[in-house]
Write a structure and sequence with these properties.
The structure holds two protein chains of two kinds. Chain A is mainly α. Chain A contains two helices and no strands. Chain B folds into three domains: about 160 residues, Glycogen Phosphorylase B (Rossmann fold, 3-Layer(aba) Sandwich); about 210 residues, Glycogen Phosphorylase B (Rossmann fold); about 120 residues. Chain B has 22 helices and 15 strands. An eight-stranded mixed β-sheet of chain B has the order 10-9-8-11-12-13-14-15, sandwiched between helices. Chain B has a five-stranded parallel β-sheet with strand order 3-2-1-4-5, with helices on both faces. In chain B, strands 6-7 form a two-stranded antiparallel ribbon. In chain B, helix 19 packs antiparallel against helix 22 and helix 20 packs antiparallel against helix 21. Classes of the chains: A mainly alpha, B alpha/beta.
């Protein structure tokens, strides 16, 4: 999971840069952003229980 | 043109019209899912021709499948284990996600509605294709976009402050386009309390009493009503604390009357248990919603960040007891060392409500006053559910004392929003006000005047931009200057918000509205901006009139107005 998280972070950095330059985000970028928030939410939920 | 001959189609079966597909995204918690179920059930009854699809988290939707499958034709479950945990790389996860969204996209969805207000859901919704879309979604610039008024309302008003006057279920119904109808009234079974179900838990510490208060309530109930059996329900994680409550030495002589079912039932079994019970008592949690669906009278003890108006179980027999603590309701991430709101609701008050519901089936303040000292009564608000002439859920304050200014504003905002969004009129009694509230309302009207003037300026500048752009020789510098003035108006509205916090719902809504203006060019955007300001000034006007009437009535009836005097008034707004 740590590897996946690190891969995700690199992708997010690239997307943030792209969005900052005013470029249109592709479906794949939105997928990454969804996955990042989804994993974060699920892990927080699991940590609580 | 070679048009086909009519006889070419002879013998072929007529093409059946395909049902329209409406898909709902609800990937937040189980309580939200239950409230979505209630709203979607009304839609299912009114539109049996629709194909209804639900997209929800597996962990929340799977235990509710017995209910959800009554309403939805297809349920897609977002499964964390399948999507993420079993994958070896990010590319595996992306493939899994593509497979999941691909299946949904094959449905050819006509209308997609995101009812879950979370960033995760906004991104998820952007991955689903549909002809029409309602609710928040991330656009291809990564920014949030909301097109419909009720979703903008949720985003700007729900869980932001404590002035939202609508039940979440009703808001969901508005978003879904359901014609509002009251639920069937709950008929009280017998004049006894044989089976009472309690859920002494909630999603956060701040929302539920410590065990000792529940022990006190159980002791009092079983002492007064020895024929009652109390079932403690909850999840596996809650079993240990439920055990602590059930085995508390104070309750030793009532052991046979207490059943700890926490962690022992599935949600379906719990639902069936609730159906056989006489009363549910608990905090703001999914069990309360489940009890309302099971047509059980409910008593909710609202604590911490709970907004009674938003999430009280949606039924005709719901009582809500909330503290009058100054900081109630708080926000989920606010720090709190000492939960004063927990202390402000005594178990005696809750027992009194139980006793009355078990007897006459309703609670009255007269009876409350007979059974409790003013010491306990003065620190709580009692609410009873009620469906207005608009068929909207409402919580009526049962307390006899003066309304507080927030309750009055909530009522006026409710009337204002309903008229603005739905052209519905709802009558309410004039609120009881005293001199302090009079002054507060007069002050709010000052803020409303400012907000109205700003909105009128906004309309003027938006119109000026349209006229300038449409002229034969548009002056770019003038357009820029007008656009700058509109920015200034938005900044000034923010200052009004800070000076008049009771107007925050209006400023916040129109901020979201203006962030989501429709149009691809300056003319369309300016038209959209004009209408946004126009709606803002209309709402300010409605609110101003309502407050003006209320304070005028007070003045008429208190000709010898004196700031220390407390006089009441009656009539309808």
């Amino acid at each position: 999971m740590e590897n996946i998280k690190s891969e995700l972070q690199s992708s997010i950095d690239a997307i943030t840069k792209k969005a900052g330059e005013g470029l249109t985000l592709e479906a794949e970028d939105l997928e990454i952003l969804f996955l990042a928030t989804f994993i974060d939410e699920e892990q927080r939920e699991r940590a609580k229980s | 043109m070679n048009a086909p001959k009519v006889d070419q189609f002879e013998g072929e079966p007529p093409v059946e019209p395909q049902p329209k597909t409406l898909a709902i995204v609800q990937i937040t918690r189980i309580g939200d899912l239950l409230q979505t179920y209630i709203a979607a059930k009304s839609l299912r009854t009114q539109r049996p021709d629709l194909r209804l699809v639900l997209i929800a988290r597996k962990s929340f939707a799977a235990p509710l499948k017995f209910l959800l499958s009554e309403v939805f034709d297809e349920i897609f479950m977002l499964d964390y284990e399948r999507l993420i945990e079993n994958a070896h790389s990010l590319s595996d996860i992306q493939d899994n996600l593509k497979e999941f969204t691909g299946k949904i996209n094959n449905l050819e969805i006509d209308v997609l509605i995101n009812l879950s207000f979370s960033t995760t859901a906004e991104y998820f919704t952007s991955l689903i294709q549909s002809k029409f879309l309602l609710g928040p979604v991330r656009a291809n610039n990564g920014l949030l976009s909301i097109s419909d008024k009720w979703s903008k309302f949720v985003f700007s008003n729900v869980m932001r402050g404590d002035l939202n006057p609508f039940a979440l279920v009703d808001i969901f119904k508005f978003i879904l386009g359901v014609e509002l109808k009251q639920p069937e009234p709950i008929v009280k079974k017998e004049n006894t309390l044989k089976n009472m179900v309690i859920h002494p838990f909630a999603s956060q510490d701040r929302k539920y009493w410590k065990s000792v208060k529940w022990v006190e309530l159980i002791y009092k109930t079983l002492k007064e009503k020895p024929e009652t059996i109390i079932s403690i329900v909850g999840s596996k994680e809650e079993r240990e604390i439920a055990e602590e409550i059930a085995n508390n030495p104070i309750l030793s002589k009532f052991r046979k009357s207490i059943r700890n079912l926490a962690g022992l039932t599935s949600i379906e079994e719990l639902f069936n248990h609730l159906k056989r019970a006489d009363l549910f008592v608990g905090h703001d949690s999914m069990v309360g919603h489940l009890a309302a669906i099971a047509e059980l009278p409910t008593i909710t003890i609202s604590l911490g960040s709970v907004r009674p108006n938003e999430t009280t179980p949606y039924s005709t027999k719901a009582i809500n007891i909330a503290p009058k603590t100054k900081c109630f309701p708080c926000f989920p991430d606010e720090k709190c060392e000492f939960y004063q709101c927990h202390a402000d609701i005594g178990h005696q008050i809750v027992y009194s409500a139980i006793n009355q519901i078990a007897g006459k089936g309703e609670i009255t303040v007269e009876q409350m006053e007979k059974e409790n000292s003013t010491f306990y009564l003065n620190s709580v608000n009692f609410y009873a559910s009620n469906f207005k002439s608009t068929n909207l859920f409402s919580l009526n304050t049962l307390n006899k004392d003066y309304s507080d200014v927030k309750t009055i504003m909530r009522t006026f905002l409710r009337m204002g929003w309903l008229y603005l969004f739905e052209e519905k009129e709802e009558n309410h009694d004039y609120p009881l006000i005293n001199a302090t509230i009079y002054d507060q309302l007069v002050n709010v009207n000052e803020g409303l005047k400012n907000l109205y003037d700003l909105a009128e300026f906004g309309k003027k500048y938006s119109k000026d931009i349209i006229e300038e752009v449409s002229s034969d020789t548009p002056d770019i510098a003038k357009i820029k200057s007008l656009s700058g003035k509109i920015d200034e108006i938005d900044e000034l509205q923010e200052i009004v918000r800070q000076g008049y916090p009771l107007l925050a719902p209006i400023v916040d809504y129109f901020k979201v509205d203006k962030a989501n203006l429709k149009g691809q060019n300056i003319v369309h955007l300016s038209e959209s901006s004009f209408y946004s300001y126009h709606h803002c000034s209309s709402l300010c006007n409605i609110m101003f009139e309502l407050i003006q009437k209320t304070v005028s009535e007070f003045k008429i009836k208190n000709t010898n107005y004196n700031t220390n005097e407390k006089e009441s008034q009656g009539g309808q707004v």
